[in-house]
Structure formats: C-alpha cells, structure tokens
Protein 1
Amino acid sequence: MQRSGPPAPPARPVIADRRVVTGGAYLMLFLLGAMEGLLGCFWYGSGPVPLAALAFDALLLATSLLAAWGMRKPVGGLMPAVGWFLASFVLAMGTKGGSVVITNTSAGKWFLFGGSATAVAAAVAAFVRWSRPAQD
C-alpha cells in the first residue's frame, strides 16, 4: 500500500551545515580569547606579582594549543590568540585623558609580553603540528 500526500522535502546539504558549525566554533574561540584578554587586563596584578600575569599567559597558551588540537587546524589555535591580542592591546592603549588599564609595571609587562610570546609560540606549534605538507 502506497502512501499518498505531499512528497518528502529534499535533503538539506550537509556541507553547508558543517560550515556554519565550523564558523561558529571559530567565532566562539575568538570570543574566548577576547574574554581571557579582557579578564586578564583587570586581574593581571592580583596576588603576588607577577604570578597572576604568568597564570593568564599559561591559560592563553593552553587555550590556543587545545583549540588547535580540537579543531585539527592551525587556525583553531590562532583564533583565541587574535581575540586576546585585540582585547589586550586595545585596553593597553592610552586615552586622551592619559589613563590606561594595563600599567607599566612588572606584572603589566609580563602580562602583555608574556601573553604575546605564548600566543606566538602556540600559533607556531599549531602550524607545525597540524599543517599539511605540500603534495607534489
């Protein structure tokens, strides 16, 4: 016995769904890095100096490496680093009134320069590990 009625809708393309999910994951990784930078900008000097700044640097390194591992692509590790860079360096810039969020102290230097170094190290490690060699 055949069933009458409207035909079944065509199957949705799976590739478009994957692209949306992948793009959303990259956006979330970028926002995670930006939140780490934002929180770090206000908390880098708490505790014994520069212990908190070093902890935020280690967190950025771990986030970038785990993001690259999770996405299986180097750009996965780059997204949290880019978010961190944008948030941290925008807040490190002075205003017309002369106020800055990240001060020129040892903790501030460790936060900015250490975070930059760990972001670069994680990006290089991700590109070395998850880049595909050129096929001849």
Protein 2
Amino acid sequence: MSEIEARLAKLGIELPRPNPPVANYVPFVRAGDLVHISGQVSVDASGGIKGVVGEDVDAERAKQAARLCGINLLAQMKAACDGDLARVVRVVKLGGFVQAGPNFFEIPQVVNGCSDLMVEAFGDAGRHARAAVGVYRLPMNFAVEVDAVVQVR
C-alpha cells in the first residue's frame, strides 16, 4: 500500500470505481507528464448530493459534496496511473463549479472540501492552483463538479 493510500485509509476513504463518462468525452487524457481529468460530480453509491447550494443544499453539505468530487478525482487519478497513486507527482490545478443560488457567495469555501482532501492525501504535493466558480446549473442537478490537472511519473 502506498503512503497516499495509507493516508486515505486512515481518513476512512475507500476509493470507488471510477465513474464512466455520461456523454461524448473520456474520463482523462494524458499529455506528456500531465493528466487532465474530466469533471467529477458529487455522486456516490447513495446517489450523491444534488441541488442548488444556498437553497436546497447548505454550505456545509456543499463542502461535503466537493469532498465527494475529490474522492471521485482520486479514483480517476488511480486509474490514470494504472492503480498506483504514488505515481502522482503533484496536483497542479483544480477547477471547481458550484451550482449556486442567487444569494450564495461562499463558493471558495465550498470548493475547499476538495482542495483540503488533495492536501490530506498528497501533503504539499496536493497544494494546487484553483478556480472556484458559481454556475447556474450542473449536469443531472449535482451540487458540485470539480476537474483537475495532475502531474504524474
């Protein structure tokens, strides 16, 4: 077990099977030593966290939704690295999208749910550049979606 997987186990995180695409795209693309991972929504085995943040979903639950996105990103990273998360050199950038109501502005704090997980999993190599954006709608009414760029060996 790699150090990263040991950290995840300590956090009580078991990675799911990577989510298959729901439209005409691939889950990730490798270009040189960078892997671009398609957006992962706040889905889990129970159906995930859906709704408009600030209306149907409160800020704390939305932060949990972003963490779910992070778990799904980790599953895609593992797949991109042939099952070995130790091949991840660095999380380069996250792009966070929050399905936000008109009066909800704590979007960066929501996306911290994913950012915090990357640091918990990878330590300093998990610190990344980031965008956190409020959007009108997300696919299938999920509360949060996050994509990533990671450097791998």
Protein 3
Amino acid sequence: MEVRLKPDTESRLNKLASQSGRPTDDLVEDAMAGYLAEVVEVRNLLDTRYDDMKSGRVTPIDGEAFFKNLRQREDELLKQRPTK
C-alpha cells in the first residue's frame, strides 16, 4: 500500500523518525493501528448508545433546555462568589 502525505506532514514524520531512530514505515504503521483502534472503540460506543436509546434504557434530552439550565446554574454560581 502506498500512502501520500502532504509535504508538511511528511517533513514532520521524517523529523520524528530521525529523532526516534525508528523507520517512517513503523511510525505510520503504529499511528494507523492506534487510529483504527480508536475508531472501532468510538463506533462501538455509538452503537451501544444508539441501542440504549432505541430500547428506552436512555432517553434523549433537549439540547436547548440543557444549555439553558447550564447557563442558569453558572449564573447562580457566579452570583455566589465573593466580590474582591
């Protein structure tokens, strides 16, 4: 497989390879393996959350109402702070 990188990214990869003493191929392999593992983890989390919502174990909240409540709580906390 061939991977094409932007010049800036390739330069940074080469610099890291030089500093670490590891071949660029190994660094790219490690980076991709880590990235793909993370994508699978996020995908599984999203699937689980979707299943929880679909089954009714979790109910969605209204985003606007949540942020309104959050701003109100923040305002109340700020009012409680002693003035200097």
